[in-house]
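Late entry, evening session. Most of the bench is empty. Finally got around to the prediction I had been postponing all week. Sequence below, unchanged from the version circulated by S.P.
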Amino acid sequence: MRTVEVGLDIDSLESFGEYINYATVVLRKRYRDDSRSAKREELAFNRKTVEDSGNLLTWTYPLLGEAADRGGLEYDYKVVWNFAGGIRLETDWKSTDISPLAISPPLEPRSIDLAIEEANAERNDVRFVRVTLEHEVAGETLSEEIKIQPQRESWVTHRYYHEPADRQLRYKVDWYVDGEWRSSGWQRSDLPFLDLNYRPERT
């Protein structure tokens, strides 16, 4: 028998419930002898399992006589991630012989502040601001729309999830001025703050 430890590499328990709903690690041991059925198991990390067992779970499978020096310790795994907002990512199968196996979330949370100065809104009679944000996750474009009424609020903090190497957002700002919508057109930013002040030259 062999026991493989599977560890979840996260900074804190608060990641669960805050932006990770669960992570399921699917493990599979295939044997060179085709007459032997593959062994398969799923290990689920969620807030309860982490609270009860920490961020380390184990999987035990029989070697059935396969020698370690001939690849007998090799197994396959993939991870299914489910994030707040319904984002679901599934990795491809990978092969390894290591233990412990460490897995890391493929997305990171980030906050961006959206703000328009009250004086700017009053001076230009901006009744509404509409911000459209787009970013790529696993090759898929995710789009979100945020509406702000400056007379009630001038600052909004928005949270999104991005791949570690790509924080960039595409964004478009629309202002409702003089009875019509005026647009900034699409732009890009990786800054943690977007200036929503209306300027005629921006439209």
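Two things to note before I forget:
The chain has two domains: 2-105, 109-202.
DSSP finds three helices and 16 strands in the chain.
Will write this up properly tomorrow.
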